[in-house]
C-alpha cells in the first residue's frame, strides 16, 4: 500500500496544523485536497491574525478561513486612502 500526504488521518493532521503560523497554514493548503479540508475543519484557531492592506486578495481569503476564531487582529495600513476604503469594504463588510 502506498502512503501519500493525503493518507495522514485528520486528527493527527489537525494537531500538526494547530502549530503553524497563518502563512504556513495557507501554504499547507496547497499540498493536497485532504490538507485543505483539514484546514477548513480546523478553521484556523489562531489567537492573532495579521493583515496587510496592500495584499487585498490574500486578506479576503485569510479572513474567510480564520475569522471565526481569531482573538486579535493586527492590521498594517501600508497604502493610500482609496485602497484603505476598498480594503475595509471587502474584508469588513
UniProtKB/TrEMBL annotation:
Domain F-box, chain residue ranges per copy: 8-47
SUPFAM superfamilies: F-box domain (SSF81383)
Leader sequence segment: none
Pfam families associated with the record: F-box
InterPro entries recorded: F-box-like_dom_sf, F-box_dom
Protein name, per record: SFRICE_035106
Source organism of this protein record: Spodoptera frugiperda
Biological classification of the source: Eukaryota, Metazoa, Ecdysozoa, Arthropoda, Hexapoda
Amino acid at each position: 500500500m502506498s502512503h501519500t500526504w493525503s493518507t495522514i488521518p485528520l486528527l493527527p493532521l489537525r494537531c500538526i496544523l494547530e502549530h503553524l503560523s497563518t502563512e504556513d497554514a495557507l501554504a499547507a493548503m496547497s499540498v493536497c485536497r485532504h490538507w485543505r479540508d483539514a484546514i477548513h475543519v480546523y478553521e484556523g484557531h489562531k489567537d492573532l491574525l495579521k493583515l496587510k492592506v496592500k495584499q487585498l486578495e490574500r486578506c479576503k481569503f485569510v479572513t474567510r478561513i480564520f475569522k471565526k476564531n481569531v482573538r486579535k487582529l493586527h492590521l498594517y495600513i501600508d497604502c493610500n486612502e482609496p485602497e484603505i476604503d476598498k480594503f475595509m469594504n471587502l474584508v469588513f463588510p
